[in-house]
Inverse folding.
């Protein structure tokens, strides 16, 4: 899909230009602050850019030119494109901020095959033989980096919106602010349910897992970027509703695939240790479904092991086998397929630009069949 590759390159260029500006700004304060843009820039280098792509195609879905010869070849002359690209790039900065904070909360050692932000800062402390606790320093520095990236995402969004018609810009900002609130709510519910799950009836476990999935990831991974993009293009209520009907089930499928990879993914592809979600104690839909199917004694063993950061490879493999044998993984795969179908059906006859619709369907397949 060369068009998406070109878009990814353009988004990366916008991000790199913005970070270079911020690096200069921070260096004028103190040279030690280079660490912030070094670590942030590393995190923002590469990636699939799903959120930026969904934003762009949400815009094109309602404002795209009637051309099928290639989006950037025919549409790059659009005077709105620079503002859209900056707005789409802002979603990637927001995503990076969420990852930094998420890795702190999950105590994750790696991100995309490299040390997570707090571990990088921690190593700087050790390499410098500085005083105090290296782990505390790493977490504190990463917390500040996440805050900085969050603020920068809003700044970059503001620059993009300033290039666009005011009504569309206001609508897009409302969508962005709603997304931000929902993600923070979902993050809190995630850490809450990891700790307080035993305080609630077993019958609520799956619903609670799904609620976390929707607000922590599904909405901001697909639905919100689409809504932001469509708002940038002054989409009608009918068009935005169709994109939401596409985005939410696709976001659910996207996150469920992430949950499967978090347990069964190949570390060489995911960049995370095998079974990392098991060590972090993630109460995902897979776990909730398995607990409905397992015996009391099997659940007791699962609950004892889940969340142990020192799980051995043998214990991880045992939990994997238990989850597979319970039928939970097979059920999740069916749910992924069903949500993908719902998403595709939602835009089949929607009043959206044909080229953009085709690209969205391609993105839907890529997001749900990925291996990393």
């Amino acid at each position: 899909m060369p068009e998406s590759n070109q878009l990814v390159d353009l988004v990366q260029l916008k991000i790199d230009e913005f970070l270079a500006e911020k690096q200069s700004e921070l260096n004028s304060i103190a040279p030690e602050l280079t660490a912030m843009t070094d670590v942030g820039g590393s995190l923002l280098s590469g990636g699939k850019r799903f959120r930026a792509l969904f934003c762009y195609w949400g815009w094109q879905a309602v404002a795209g030119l009637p051309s099928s010869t290639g989006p950037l070849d025919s549409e790059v002359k659009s005077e709105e494109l620079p503002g859209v690209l900056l707005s789409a790039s802002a979603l990637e900065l927001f995503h990076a901020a969420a990852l930094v904070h998420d890795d702190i909360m999950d105590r994750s050692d790696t991100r995309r095959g490299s040390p997570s932000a707090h571990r990088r800062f921690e190593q700087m402390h050790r390499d410098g033989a500085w005083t105090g606790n290296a782990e505390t320093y790493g977490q504190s520095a990463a917390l500040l980096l996440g805050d900085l990236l969050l603020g920068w995402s809003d700044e970059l969004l503001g620059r993009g919106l300033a290039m666009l018609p005011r009504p569309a810009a206001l609508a897009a900002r409302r969508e962005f602010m709603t997304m931000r609130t929902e993600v923070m709510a979902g993050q809190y519910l995630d850490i809450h349910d990891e700790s307080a799950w035993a305080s609630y009836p077993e019958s609520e476990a799956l619903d609670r897992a799904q609620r976390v999935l929707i607000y922590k990831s599904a909405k901001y991974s697909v639905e919100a970027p689409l809504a932001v993009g469509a708002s940038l293009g002054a989409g009608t209520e009918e068009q935005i509703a169709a994109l939401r009907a596409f985005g939410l089930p696709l976001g659910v499928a996207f996150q469920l695939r992430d949950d499967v990879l978090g347990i069964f993914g190949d570390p060489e592809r995911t960049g995370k240790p095998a079974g990392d979600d098991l060590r972090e104690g993630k109460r995902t839909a897979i776990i909730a479904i398995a607990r409905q199917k397992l015996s009391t004694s099997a659940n007791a063993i699962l609950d004892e092991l889940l969340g142990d950061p020192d799980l051995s490879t043998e214990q991880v493999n045992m939990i994997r086998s238990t989850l597979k044998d319970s039928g939970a993984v097979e059920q999740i795969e069916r749910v992924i397929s069903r949500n993908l179908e719902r998403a595709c059906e939602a835009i089949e006859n929607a009043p959206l630009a044909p080229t953009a619709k085709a690209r969205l369907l391609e993105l839907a397949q890529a997001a749900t069949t990925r291996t990393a």
